[in-house]
Structure formats: C-alpha cells, structure tokens
Write a structure and sequence with these properties.
- Chain A: InterPro entries: HATPase_C_sf, HATPase_dom, Put_sensor_dom, Sensor_HK_TwoCompSys, Sig_transdc_His_kin_sub3_dim/P.
- Chain A: Residues 324-407 form the Histidine kinase/HSP90-like ATPase domain.
- Chain A: Keywords: ATP-binding, Kinase, Membrane, Nucleotide-binding, Phosphoprotein, Transferase, Transmembrane, Transmembrane helix, Two-component regulatory system.
- Chain A: Its EC number is 2.7.13.3.
- Chain A: It catalyses: ATP + protein L-histidine = ADP + protein N-phospho-L-histidine.
- The complex is a heterodimer of chains A (418) and B (214).
- Chain A is an alpha+beta fold.
- Chain A is 69% helix and 10% strand.
- Chain A has a 5-stranded mixed sheet with strand order 3-4-5-7-6, covered by helices on one side. A two-stranded antiparallel sheet of chain A has the order 1-2.
- In chain A, helix 6 packs antiparallel against helix 7.
- The longest helix of chain A is centred in the middle third of the chain and has 58 residues, at 195-252.
- In chain B, 54% of the residues lie in helices and 14% in strands.
- Chain B is built from 10 helices and 6 strands; from the N terminus they run E-H-E-H-E-H-E-H-E-H-E-H-H-H-H-H.
- In chain B, strands 2-1-3-4-5-6 form a 6-stranded parallel sheet, sandwiched between helices.
- In chain B, helix 4 (88-95) links the parallel strand 4 and strand 5.
- In chain B, helix 7 (153-164) packs across helix 9.
- The longest helix of chain B has 15 residues, at 179-193.
- The chains are: A alpha+beta (418), B alpha/beta (214).
- Chain A binds chain B through residues 265, 268-269, 272-273, 276, 279-280, 285-286, 288-290, 294, 297-298, 301-304, 417-418, and chain B through 54, 57-58, 60-61, 84-85, 87-90, 92, 108, 111, 137, 141, 144-145, 213.
Amino acid sequence: MRLKRALVAVGRCQLAGLLAVAVSAVGSLVVLALLLLPIGAGLRLLVPAATALRALSDRSRARAARWTGTRISPPEPLGAESSGSRSKRAGGILADEGFWRDLVWAWLEPWAGGFLVAVPLMLLWYGAFGTLVQPFVWRHLGPGNWYAFVPVSSTPTMLAALALGVGFMVAGVSMAPGILRLHGRWTRLLLSAPRRTELTRRITQLTDTRARVLDVQAAELRRIERDLHDGAQARLVALGMTLDSATRLLDSDPAAARGLLLEVGEASARALEDLRNLVHGIHPPVLADRGLGDAVRSLALDSFLDVHVDVRLAGRLPAPVESAAYFVVGETLANAAKHAGAREVGIVLDHDGLRLRVSVTDDGRGGADPAKGSGLRGLQRRLESFDGVLTLDSPPGGPTTATMEIPCVLSSPKTSSC
Amino acid sequence: MRVVLAEDLFLLRDGLTRTLREHGCEVVASVDNGPSLLRALLEDKPDVAVVDIRLPPTFTDEGLQAALEARRRRPGLPILVLSQYVDQLYANELLAGGDGAVGYLLKDRVTNTEQFIDAVRRVAAGGTVMDPQVITKLLSRSRARGMIDSLTPRELDVLEMMAEGRSNVAIAAALHFSESAVAKHTASIFGKLQIAPSTDDNRRVLAVLAYLKR
C-alpha cells in the first residue's frame, strides 16, 4: 500500500515537472504580451494569455488539494471575465493583484517547483542507470568509467555500483510523497489569494452569518414569548379563575367546588407539560447535563429507527456547538426516517483536535439533493455561524452520509461544569 | 419506613417531607445537594430514597449520579428518582443493574399524593416504577417498529400498565377487570411476544421493559 502510494507520488512528480514547463511557456506568452503593450498588439494577446495562465494556476490549486490535501484559497475571478472593451479588460487584469501573483508563480515555478519535483526523479533514473545499465556496460567502457563516486572497473566495484543504484532508487521513490507535499506548500505560498482578499471575504462572511444569527435569535425569542403567552401563562390565568369560582362555591355547593378543584389539578398538569416542552425546545436538559455524546444517545433511544451511536469524544464541547450539532443530528435523523425510508442509522462523533466531526449514515434510498430541500439549506446556515460545514453524500439507491465539521476546542471532562 | 429525601427547592422539600410524614414515613435525612445525598444514602441506610435529579452544586444530573453511585456500592438500594422531564437514557441507566427497587417519575406526579406514596412503597418493596410518559414513548416506538402489532387493544392497555410496574391487582382495579382476566391477558401477551412468563412482579416488569427497548 505504501509502495503504491509512493509510486503514485513519483508519477505525480513527473506530471508536475511537465506542467512546470507548460507554465513557463504560458508565462513567457504573458510577458511577451506585456512587452508588446506599448504597440497595441499586447492588448490583443494579454486577455487570452492571462486567462490561460489563470486556468493553469486554478488547476494547480485544485491539484494541490487533490494530491496532498493542501487547501489554497482561490483569488477573486480575473478581471477579464467582466465585459467591456478590450483595453478596459486588459486594464482590469493589470490592476488585479491575483494576476501579478500568477505571473510571479509562472516565473518561479519552472525553476524552484520544477527543481523540487525533479529531485526524486533524478535519483530514480540515475539509480536505474546504476542498477540496470552499469552491470552490462562496464566491461566495454574500460578505466575511467565512474558511477557516482565509484570507479566501476571490476566485479566488486560493479556490485558496489549496483547496490548504490538500488539505494538511489529507494531514496527517490520513498522521498517522492514528502517532496510532493513540499511542492503543495510551495504552491500555496505563491498561489493563495492575497491576504486582503481573504480578509475581505472573511468580513463579508462574518457580516452575513452575524446578521443571520441575530435574526434567528430574535425569531427564537419571539417564539418563546408567544409560547409562554399562549401556553403556560394563559393556563395559569384560567387556573386562577377556576380557583376563584371554586372558592365562592365552597359553602353553597361543595360538590361543584370539588369538580372545579379537580379541573384545577388537570390544568396545572397541562401548564407544566407546556413548560416542559418549551424548555426542551430551548435547550434539551440531557444536553446540559451530559453533553453531546449522551444527548445523541438519547435521541437514538427516542428514534423509531435502529440507531447505533459511536462517541469518540473525551470531554465537553463549547455549549453553542453542542447545541447546534445536537439540532443538526436530530434533523438528520428525522429526515432519514421521513424521506429516506431508512431502517438503520449509524452516527459517529469524533474530534481530531481541531474540529468536531459528526457523520450520520443511513441505509435509506439515497438521492437526497441539498439544492432541493430547504431543510438541508437551513442546517447548513445553522452551522455557518460556527464556520462549520455540512456535506452530503447521497447516491441514488443509498446509502446517505451527512457529515458535519465544526472547528472548536474540546475541553477536558469535569472542567467545563460548575 | 425510613426515607432519605433530596430536593433543593425549599418549598418542594417541605411539602414532600410533610406528605411523607402524613403517610407514616420517617424522613431520616433531607438534603439539598449531590455530595450530601451520597453520604446520606450510604450512611443512613434508608428503606427508600426520594431523589430530585437536578441538584446543586452543578445543577445537572447530580441526583441521578449520586443515586447510581450509591446503587453501585449497595446494589438494590431502593431509590425513586423525580425529574421535571423524563429521558429514556436515564431510565435505562437506572434499570441497568437489573436489581429492581427503582422508580423514575415526573415531578408532577407528586401532586397525586396517593399514587406518589404508592410508588414510594412499591420501590421500597423492591418493585420497579416507571413514569407513564417513559412507557408511552417506548410503546409508540415499539408500535412504529411493528413489535406489538399482534396485541389486541385490551392487551396493549395491560402491557402499558405492566411496564409501568403495576401488579395484577392494581391493573385489575384500574381497568375494571377481574384479576383472573388480567392474568389471562398477561399470559396471552407473554405468549404472543415470546417473553418468558414470570410470577415475580419485578422480574416481569424488567422482562417487559427489556422487550420494549429492543
């Protein structure tokens, strides 16, 4: 398995090397366009050349994510995509910080990036030469035939060269994954969006999510107020009135008073029931008592499906995260029962030191589309205010897996209470 | 009967103490927090304890934790847990030992003094008392999963009361059956659900609950 991964990495190094050449070619085209700008021909060339370069850098970003898991935030789309006259579009490109970053990358990638990925390849090919070619040719070459630092002129020195070649090959193959990771980081260094773009994006996102959080909060408070007003409060008023009547009837008609008092008992029970449901909706008590793990176990027990819960959390999460995660798990379970026609559900709760990850897998019919259901969109929104993401994998025929990830800290048990 | 009482709200503690005394119970200790409760449960050796689930200092499930810990150290110590809400998870934890002598009731139930005292007595005698709300949830789940489709409506009523921990006598009185009719129904239920019948009331409750939780 490891060998296979290493060999795949070697192939990718080779590919990255070839692509560096392509980048160099397109980069030269862009430089040519810039040089030709004073005579007007550059205008014609700049837009397609810059667009091609951006296509290459976009692919490079995507590759870094696919090959090594290095996430690189993309810059704003190139100014060329806006319509307008040719000179205006060229002007837009020249004013774009992302374009100049692409250009710097195009200039450095062939030398630095290309050299980096060439190291394992050189070791591999040179090693192959020592192993596969030297044993057959050293006799014909006579003295003066060297392999690395070994003068190959006899069988023992030939064997030494052979061993050295094998060593080179092993070194080349085994270093390839590491080199590829390093290349990914190098690409991120050059190609991630300018700091300002990232910050602007972040501010926009925070403003959006904050506004939504405030909306949700206000709506929630209104709901609680309404529930109290129409529920427990109204019942208590009615209860007071019935008590009053009962008091007045106590002497004249004890039997009727007794009936009314029984009514009071029932009304108070209903008022309590209302309050209980309200409290449960605001913050489920088991969540407050025990945290997310047991709260999800409790959800599982209440579900009509066969739910298996695997909790790998050694501690408590921040209360708002627990609350959001609980809500999302509850909704997902309800969806599995209602829409997917599932029978069994597996829930895994995990924390990798940086983020909480919850996955809910059901054996239903699948085919759930986040674009269609507004419920799913609502769940995504709920997680956004925590920088959380919800991904859905639901091929037709199932199984469906909903995975949510929320960055947060895990506090050790016992310290979070009190 | 010697009772330990744990309740942090003064008004409720006072009311419960009075109710228990009026019915001939001796309240040997009434405490208002988790650590004192555990001490009282282990040192005062009560015949039964009435415990509010949410207690200081953490105001989480302190009462339940103390009850579970006390029962770990002294299996079968009779404890009736009261709570503002019932949760299946907590019910399972209380039932887990399989020793019986546990109760889990909504706090509202204390307003019906007779039933409340009856529950305290049943728990003290080693019985199992589950709140109707716990049982209703379990039954609707079992129904949705098609586990109790074969039962008649009457049998469902009997099953519900059995699961709450009531004896044949109590079920007969509540449903206006004769005792022999109840016995016939229970036999039929056990046959249909393939639960091993048991004449011991407590083992019967546990078997029924175990079936419903499947």
